[in-house]
Amino acid sequence: MALNEIKTITMKMTSNTQGDGLFLNRLLSYLKSQFPFKINKIGQIRKNVFIITSDSDHFILKGFPSYHRLKLQETYTASLKKEGFQYTYLFYEFAKNPPLYFEQNYYGCLEYIPPSQKTFSYDNFPDRCDGLKLLEQYHTTTKLITNRYRSNLGHFKLLEKWRERSARFLNNVSIIKFFVQKEMIDELMTWADWALKGLEKEKVTLDNVPPVILHGDVAHHNFMRSEDGQLYLIDFDLISIGHERADYLQYANRILPFLDWSIEKLAQHEKLKPYLNDKIFLYSLAFPTDIFREWNRLIRNRQFMNSNKVRNVLDLTVGQFKERQNFYHELKSLVND
């Protein structure tokens, strides 16, 4: 695909107007008709997530694509609280006639947790350690309720997910090659191939493990520090059943850019250190899942003519390439030892 073709496709894109003032006004009007108290203000946090101000309090309004997804989240967070995991939010039942339904989304009302002025950051060693401790507490709790949710949650399938992600990346190379050297793309595919073949060899071990309910999205913005300093875990949209290793793997992938892709620095985190003797974990760390994910998303959303978006993905791909190359060779040595 030539660059002028890419530009033509991009120019045909239509803007997303969901977060505009007209939508917020319509939503505010709807909410005023649904609640038994006065709603004063609505502000958008991100897509389908809003902060609502009433005469007496604040709460979070979150949209879900189906009633089932809404009820699952309500039930799940209540289960966590009941079993002793207090560091998340509760759902409220405020509406006169639930459920709230507006423009193809069902809405739930979530507890507002006043945030600290100091945000949680993976660039901060104490924050990284606190996040791992909270994740461990979360897994300890979910072991108690996994059987309860077996019929409602899918099983996390790492190999299938990454095979698909790798295939999509390969299919998108015709566009990616305009931004990244062929030799670098070939190297990324080498890492992915080694990781997938290694995971295939360990597949019996991968599948035969005691499950927990995985959070599934341990990005830094899903850890929130409250104004009293307590850390909370939020947003359970991607929960599934699987081995807790999957959450710690994702956590490691999220923090490694802040550790210069150093195994030595990764080992300083006590919760992750034992996993560096786990072949499944080592093979998985080699798979460039973040690079594949971001390129696939960029191309799926046809944002490859957006210089800011492309710059961010290039920084991820090219800016850290040497460090990741060395990291890959270290992983191979650890697996072979």
From TrEMBL:
This is Phosphotransferase. It comes from Cytobacillus spartinae. Residues 153-248 form the Aminoglycoside phosphotransferase domain. SUPFAM superfamilies: Protein kinase-like (PK-like). InterPro entries: Aminoglycoside_PTrfase (IPR002575), CotS-like (IPR047175), Kinase-like_dom_sf (IPR011009). Pfam families: APH. PANTHER family: COTS-RELATED PROTEIN, SPORE COAT PROTEIN I.
